[in-house]
Design goal:
This protein has 104 residues and is α+β, with helices and mostly antiparallel strands. It has one domain (2-103). It has two helices and three strands, in the order H-E-E-E-H. It has helices spanning 2-17, 70-103; strands spanning 25-30, 47-54, 60-65. A three-stranded antiparallel β-sheet has the order 1-2-3, covered by helices on one side. It is elongated, with a radius of gyration of 20 Å. The structure holds zinc ion (ZN). Residues 30, 32-33, 38-40, 44 line the site of zinc ion (ZN).
């Protein structure tokens, strides 16, 4: 039991480290025509980035990402994947603790 609780503490600390997360996917569009497949006559190469995600009501939402924020947004998407993995690990530990408690 003690080992499980210790493991739980470690996991919570690791979760704290990736609590700054974003969910969704980053897509790029042409910054002039705003389309994924550019239709501009001169074909501008300048790209704009956006984050697309589904809200609690399953409605698709789009948030503009500035070029300066792009690395942070990518890092935060990675944090979401780590957070999900840690949540699964935490669940396993919680189940183990729950089973132990039911035997007491
Ligand atoms: Zn365009």
């Amino acid at each position: 039991m003690k080992a499980l609780l210790r493991k739980r503490e470690t996991l919570l600390r690791r979760m704290n480290g990736c609590s700054e997360f974003l969910r969704g996917s980053i897509t790029s569009v042409c910054s002039t025509c705003n389309r994924a497949t550019c239709i501009c006559p001169g074909k501008s190469t300048k790209k704009a980035y956006r984050l697309t995600y589904k809200d609690a009501g399953q409605k698709t939402r789009t948030v503009y990402i500035s070029r300066a924020q792009l690395p942070a947004a990518r890092r935060m998407l990675g944090n979401y994947a780590r957070m999900r993995k840690l949540t699964e690990e935490l669940f396993e530990i919680n189940i183990a603790i729950f089973k132990l408690k039911s035997k007491l």
